[in-house]
Amino acid sequence: MPKNSKVVKRELDDEVIESVKDLLSNEDSADDAFKKSELIVDVQEEKDIDVEEESEVEDERPAWNSKLQYILAQVGFSVGLGNVWRFPYLCQKNGGGAYLLPYLILLLVIGIPLFFLELSVGQRIRRGSIGVWNYISPKLGGIGFASCVVCFFVALYYNVIIGWSLFYFSQSFQQPLPWDQCPLVKNASHTFVEPECEKSSATTYYWYREALNISSSISESGGLNWKMTVCLLAAWVVVCLAMIKGIQSSGKIMYFSSLFPYVVLICFLIRALLLNGSVDGIRHMFTPKLEMMLEPKVWREAATQVFFALGLGFGGVIAFSSYNKRDNNCHFDAVLVSFINFFTSVLATLVVFAVLGFKANVINEKCIAENSKVIIKFLKMGNISQDIIPHHINLSAVTAEDYHLVYDIIQKVKEEEFSALHLNSCQTEDELNKAVQGTGLAFIAFTEAMTHFPASPFWSVMFFLMLVNLGLGSMFGTIEGIITPVVDTFKVRKEILTVMCCFLAFCIGLIFVQRSGNYFVTMFDDYSATLPLLIVVILENIAVSFVYGIDKFMEDLKDMLGFAPNRYYYYMWKYISPLMLLSLLIASVVNMGLSPPGYNAWIEDKASEEFLSYPTWGLVVCILLMVLAILPVPAAFIIRHCNLIDNSSGNLASVTYKRGRVLKEPVNLEGDDASLIHGKISSEMSSPNFGKNIYRKQSGSPTLDTAPNGRYGIGYLMADMPDMPESDL
């Protein structure tokens, strides 16, 4: 550059500054909005200004007190009830130890890349799900609203399960436990065992009759169950109080709610390993059935479990990460939380099958004792010859090995008549093969096992307190997935919104505490989240990889993390993950189509479950749940594409971003620019090239008048005029 050009440039800079001073001196006295802002002339480099701006924004947005608190929040959200009562069932059902291999493969292919993606966009844009996807593409802004709807649906019934756990927790301070034995019924003449309990079991009876007081079908409401209504209210009060201050209040609770379950699981594992039969349960669990790995169903169920275990698509992951510092290493967080989740599932599986192994051993001992008495009876009657029984075996105190030997001998000798003897083989494996999951595992099988524990009330209190904490950790993330994006978008007070959200959810949740409420929990669990969340995450992947641009996103990550992520993620996000998710969606739709829509109803007279189809209105509700959850996506696209709503109205979360942050003044741009400035990443966004950087620092939140072209009248924002020549000032 010639020497005289530097002189000319300095003169132009001085003219610019003087021009701005003239504008300020001649501004309209009625322009209150402009008066509330001040002009700052800064001679620092643009990079320094960006740092100042970002630190200023970070100061305004709440932040985690520590990295540990944030990790515990993400772990608490991802590690939930499914790790305890769903993963062990899938592991047993799909090949035992062999199931862990497809699960790990899919964790690497689907889980970690998509979890990393959600953490990254939340941390980069520092907004909830609505603001994030508006930033990526306003036409795909409905993704954030769809996440909020799904979160609300899931919160409705998930907190009911916490209410059930609170009820059992409150009933555990008794010796013996109330579900230890069947109740006795007295009439005028004699006392007898409750028939419904006698036909099933004490724990089954307590769950269906005492706790739920369940009706025989979804069409029979039966009125409210007042005990569960009180527990549901208590659950929502706890959630509301914990969330009312956002991460400032919930973050502190995470130290207990996220860590306590691990303490309980480890205590249960140590205690269970000291009981007879626990090793048999663990051995049964992890004995690999390698041939099952070739079945597509195993891979589909593993992919589904990976997907839901990490909480993808809910918005909670994005909401939590949005409170991070911009330079946080979210890649490390993604890998760490994913593997903590996996090892928690394995730990829970060890605990569950150690306890179920002990329970199977207890039941097996009872079976052997009862059948030994039957054999002794047959020996006395002469139906079985004494000569076939080995002399060293005492049937009055027989071991499991000796009983199985006698059983095999009788089966061979009495080959034709054996079935008429009605003897049971009493194999521990038969009991362990009875696959149970969900509420059947937590409130029936596990509670029955704990009745045989020494000091059973203590273990019952610990177990149900653990369930409450597991549920609360997931609920905090789910509610945060609703509160954060709504607060970011509509600027409402977080306290008021939290109270209103919890109150509304409690009122709607009363349908789950009717006598038929358990059937509605099943309906919502099956239809409100599965397909909508899959569609949401597919759209998230497409939005980042193809709409925003995977190359831009990788540059963003390099700028944010300080290093370029492994190229592995590029290929996962662009090719593998979308194809895997699409395959999973198709498989889920096909599976849903082949499975008749229905539920397992408890029939009081038979004291057993029976599969019933949903009535017509029930099918309509199932369809509505799926439609309502995904409806915001096409609705937002049509509204944006057809310009049905004026962007200046602020609807659809029209926010403007500059260098990864929200501008402090509402900007009304043409078309889609109300949410994203030309879809550019920070490194590509132009900035004015003055000799001295001029920008305005707002001291309040004024409402500025706009010129006909949609820009601010006299108070130009530098972010809003990237190519403006100096002479225009």
Automatic annotation (TrEMBL):
<feature type="transmembrane region" description="Helical">
    <location>
        <begin position="100"/>
        <end position="121"/>
    </location>
</feature>
<keyword id="KW-0472">Membrane</keyword>
<dbReference type="GO" id="GO:0015820">
    <property type="term" value="P:L-leucine transport"/>
</dbReference>
<dbReference type="GO" id="GO:0005886">
    <property type="term" value="C:plasma membrane"/>
</dbReference>
<feature type="transmembrane region" description="Helical">
    <location>
        <begin position="335"/>
        <end position="356"/>
    </location>
</feature>
<feature type="transmembrane region" description="Helical">
    <location>
        <begin position="571"/>
        <end position="594"/>
    </location>
</feature>
<feature type="transmembrane region" description="Helical">
    <location>
        <begin position="614"/>
        <end position="639"/>
    </location>
</feature>
<keyword id="KW-0406">Ion transport</keyword>
<keyword id="KW-0812">Transmembrane</keyword>
<feature type="transmembrane region" description="Helical">
    <location>
        <begin position="533"/>
        <end position="550"/>
    </location>
</feature>
<feature type="binding site">
    <location>
        <position position="76"/>
    </location>
    <ligand>
        <name>Na(+)</name>
    </ligand>
</feature>
<dbReference type="InterPro" id="IPR042934">
    <property type="entry name" value="B(0)AT2"/>
</dbReference>
<dbReference type="GO" id="GO:0046872">
    <property type="term" value="F:metal ion binding"/>
</dbReference>
<keyword id="KW-0597">Phosphoprotein</keyword>
<protein>
    <recommendedName>
        <fullName>Transporter</fullName>
    </recommendedName>
</protein>
<keyword id="KW-0769">Symport</keyword>
<keyword id="KW-0532">Neurotransmitter transport</keyword>
<dbReference type="InterPro" id="IPR000175">
    <property type="entry name" value="Na/ntran_symport"/>
</dbReference>
<keyword id="KW-0739">Sodium transport</keyword>
<feature type="transmembrane region" description="Helical">
    <location>
        <begin position="302"/>
        <end position="323"/>
    </location>
</feature>
<feature type="binding site">
    <location>
        <position position="470"/>
    </location>
    <ligand>
        <name>Na(+)</name>
    </ligand>
</feature>
<feature type="binding site">
    <location>
        <position position="474"/>
    </location>
    <ligand>
        <name>Na(+)</name>
    </ligand>
</feature>
<keyword id="KW-1133">Transmembrane helix</keyword>
<feature type="binding site">
    <location>
        <position position="341"/>
    </location>
    <ligand>
        <name>Na(+)</name>
    </ligand>
</feature>
<keyword id="KW-0479">Metal-binding</keyword>
<feature type="transmembrane region" description="Helical">
    <location>
        <begin position="70"/>
        <end position="88"/>
    </location>
</feature>
<keyword id="KW-0325">Glycoprotein</keyword>
<feature type="transmembrane region" description="Helical">
    <location>
        <begin position="142"/>
        <end position="169"/>
    </location>
</feature>
<feature type="transmembrane region" description="Helical">
    <location>
        <begin position="495"/>
        <end position="513"/>
    </location>
</feature>
<feature type="binding site">
    <location>
        <position position="79"/>
    </location>
    <ligand>
        <name>Na(+)</name>
    </ligand>
</feature>
<feature type="transmembrane region" description="Helical">
    <location>
        <begin position="458"/>
        <end position="483"/>
    </location>
</feature>
<feature type="transmembrane region" description="Helical">
    <location>
        <begin position="259"/>
        <end position="282"/>
    </location>
</feature>
<keyword id="KW-0813">Transport</keyword>
<keyword id="KW-0029">Amino-acid transport</keyword>
<dbReference type="GO" id="GO:0006836">
    <property type="term" value="P:neurotransmitter transport"/>
</dbReference>
<dbReference type="GO" id="GO:0005298">
    <property type="term" value="F:proline:sodium symporter activity"/>
</dbReference>
<dbReference type="InterPro" id="IPR002438">
    <property type="entry name" value="Neutral_aa_SLC6"/>
</dbReference>
<feature type="binding site">
    <location>
        <position position="83"/>
    </location>
    <ligand>
        <name>Na(+)</name>
    </ligand>
</feature>
<dbReference type="Pfam" id="PF00209">
    <property type="entry name" value="SNF"/>
</dbReference>
<keyword id="KW-0915">Sodium</keyword>
<comment type="similarity">
    <text>Belongs to the sodium:neurotransmitter symporter (SNF) (TC 2.A.22) family. SLC6A15 subfamily.</text>
</comment>
<dbReference type="InterPro" id="IPR037272">
    <property type="entry name" value="SNS_sf"/>
</dbReference>
